[in-house]
Design a protein that fits this description.
Blueprint: E1 3-5, E2 12-15, E3 18-19, E4 26-28, E5 34-40, E6 43-49, E7 56-60, E8 66-68, E9 74-79, E10 85-92, E11 101-108, E12 114-115, E13 124-129, H1 131-134, H2 152-159, E14 163-168, H3 189-192, E15 214-218, H4 233-250, E16 255-259, H5 267-283, E17 289-292, H6 315-333
Parallel strand pairs: 13-14, 13-15, 15-16, 16-17
Antiparallel strand pairs: 1-11, 2-5, 3-4, 4-11, 5-10, 5-12, 6-9, 6-11, 7-8, 7-10
Helix pairs in contact: 2-6, 4-5
Length: 336
C-alpha cells in the first residue's frame, strides 16, 4: 500500500518563493525553485499540477537529471530503488512567466518514509534580473530547452555553495521592457519584485520567510533594445533606484550587488549610470550596495558564448560569467 506525504511534512525542504496559503498544496510562480527530500522506500511519485509549458527535472541520489512535464496529476519518478535512504532533488527549469506550479506532496512505496534532514547550506543568494538570469534559450530555441539550472545565476550559486532564489523575467527592464512602446506604461522589474508569483499580483511575498545574504541585480539590457529611443540618464536611474529601494526595504541586512548588463552592446552609459547610483548609495550611508563591472577592460563573452543573437549566453557563456563573478562576490560577502 502506498503512503502519501503531505506538503507540510518537515522533511520536505523548499527553496524559493513557495506559497502554502492554499490547503494541501505548495505553489511556486518563479523559475529555478527547488525541493530536496531524504526518503526511504523503493519507489517515488509526486503530485504536481502545472501550467502546460512548464518543465521540471529531478535527480535521485545524484544521478543525471531527467526532464519531465506534469502531464498527469501523479508522476512516477522512480521505481525499483534499493533499500535504504535516498535523496531527491526536484527542480523547476522554466521561468515564472510560464505559469504557476502546484506541488501536492510525495507518494512512497509501502514502508517508505520521509526523514527529517536539513539541506540548507546556511548561505543564500537571490538573483533579480531578466532573461539572462532565467537561462532563456541557453540550451535551444524553445521553452522546453530553457535550462535555468545551467543559467549563469544557478551555476554561480552552486560555485559559491549557496542556496538560491530567482526573481527574473524574460524581456523585463527597469524603464523599458523588450518591445514596449514609448512612453513606457507596463510594469517593470521593481513592480514585480515583492510578488509571490510573476503571473499574479497577490499575495505579496512574506519576506520574513527567509532573507538572502546577497541580492545580485543583473538587469538593464532590455532598457536599451529599442534602436530608436534609449532611456535618458534620469529615466534609467529613477527606475533602477526604485528597484534597489524595494530590495533594500525588504532585505535590510543583505548585500546588494549590481552588475552591468552582460552583453557589451548595452554600452558604457548603462554601466556608468549603475556605478554612479551605487556610489550615491554608499555616500548616503548604505555601504552594502556594491557594483561589479563585467565588460571592462573588454567584453567578457565572445560571439561563440552566445546562442547566436549576441544577447543570451549559452551554457558555456553562463559558466564563464559564473566563474568570473565567483571570487568577486565571495570577497564582498566573506564566503572565502
Amino acid at each position: 500500500m502506498e503512503k502519501e506525504i503531505p506538503v507540510h511534512n518537515k522533511g520536505i525542504n523548499y527553496f524559493g518563493r513557495w506559497d502554502f496559503s492554499r490547503p494541501g498544496v505548495a505553489r511556486i510562480g518563479w523559475g529555478s525553485a527547488y525541493i530536496k527530500v531524504r526518503f526511504t522506500g523503493n519507489s517515488l511519485s509526486i503530485k504536481l499540477i502545472d501550467a502546460p509549458d512548464n518543465w521540471w527535472q529531478f535527480s535521485v541520489d545524484g544521478a543525471p537529471f531527467e526532464k519531465f512535464q506534469a502531464k498527469a496529476p501523479v508522476i512516477e519518478l522512480e521505481a525499483g530503488l534499493s533499500d535504504g535512504e535516498h535523496d531527491l532533488f526536484l527542480f523547476r527549469r522554466t521561468e515564472g512567466g510560464l505559469g504557476i506550479s502546484q506541488f501536492g506532496g510525495l507518494i512512497l512505496a509501502n514502508g517508505g518514509q520521509v526523514l527529517e534532514h536539513d539541506f540548507s547550506k546556511n548561505r543564500c543568494i537571490e538573483f533579480v534580473g531578466n532573461s539572462i538570469v532565467c537561462g532563456f534559450r541557453n540550451a535551444g530555441q524553445d521553452w522546453d530547452d530553457e535550462d535555468s539550472y545551467m543559467a549563469f545565476s544557478v551555476q554561480l550559486a552552486r560555485l559559491l555553495n549557496a542556496d538560491w532564489s530567482c526573481v527574473s523575467i524574460s524581456g523585463i527592464g527597469v524603464v523599458h521592457n523588450y518591445d514596449e512602446p514609448w512612453p513606457p506604461s507596463m510594469p517593470h522589474l521593481q513592480d514585480y519584485y515583492a510578488q509571490t508569483y510573476k503571473c499574479e499580483t497577490e499575495p505579496r511575498w512574506n519576506f520574513t520567510c527567509g532573507q538572502p545574504d546577497v541580492v545580485l541585480v543583473a538587469t538593464g539590457t532590455n532598457d536599451f533594445t529599442d534602436v530608436n529611443r534609449k532611456p535618458a540618464a534620469a529615466e534609467f536611474k529613477k527606475g533602477y533606484s526604485e528597484l534597489i529601494e524595494v530590495i533594500r526595504l525588504n532585505n535590510p541586512l543583505a548585500k546588494i550587488i549590481c552588475t552591468e548588463p552582460i552583453p557589451g552592446w548595452a554600452g558604457p552609459l548603462c554601466r556608468d549610470w549603475i556605478s554612479e547610483l551605487v556610489k550615491y548609495y554608499n555616500v548616503n550611508g548604505d555601504n552594502d550596495v556594491h557594483y561589479l563591472a563585467v565588460n571592462v577592460p573588454e567584453p567578457l563573452l565572445l560571439d561563440e558564448h552566445y546562442v547566436g543573437d549576441g544577447t543570451h549566453p549559452n551554457i558555456l557563456g553562463g559558466a564563464i560569467i559564473a566563474g568570473y563573478l565567483k571570487e568577486k562576490i565571495a570577497n564582498i560577502v566573506g564566503w572565502n
